[in-house]
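Appendix B. Chain record.
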Amino acid sequence: NASGKHPPLEADACQRVAGVNPISMNTDAYQTVRDVVLRRATHKILADVTDPIPYTETVLARHNRIVEAAVKDAGWAPFHYARGVDGLAEPWRVHWLTYSVCRQLSRNLSQLIPHLKPGSKLPGLLAGCGSAVLFNWLPQSAGAPDKLERINQEHLAATSAVVENFLLLATAAGLETYWSSGGLWEDHLFRHLGITDQEKSIGVVFVHSPQAGGNFQVATGKNRAARSAQAAWFRRVQVNLDRPDF
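Structure tokens predicted for this chain:
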């Protein structure tokens, strides 16, 4: 579509996508979700540690309400196996670093991570966000070896679904996000945040409210323009019963 706008889905297209009767499908709801999926993008908000982005009380209160609600709703992600740690079925754990905690960390990272590389973006990210959300998963060690790997893949996939749910909900609410890897956090910061070594990081999402203003730089995701056409990674499967190795 040369206009850059996505045409509305016809009823038969909706049926092919969702596999349901188009008469009963809410095409407006599909289009709304689709728009959010396509709008979700990486926004790395970087501020100087000595001049962090200021959040007014009103902007911060709205930010916090959205983030807390989005985490709650993101927890409706599916999971296949009940993890059963601390009496909880979910294989994930979520830790929220509020505005003040992020600013405190940004000022003290050199003490907490002695060998932090010069030019690391982490201090700037912590100075630029309204809050950060750590998403962890709980690997399972007990069980039959031939099944354990599959179970842990399921736990990891379920936690990934929670993260994506959160990103979409935050985007729908007008917030900007960056899903960062969590290696430094797991290696150096978990113990300072009361997180046990039983948990493994799947990433940290930095969340920014555009209404905050302030001085900062924005870096976008480098892989967005590298996406392939659907035909490159999608195919319709047919069964060939005549193959000799069946």
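Further analysis of this model is presented in Appendix C.
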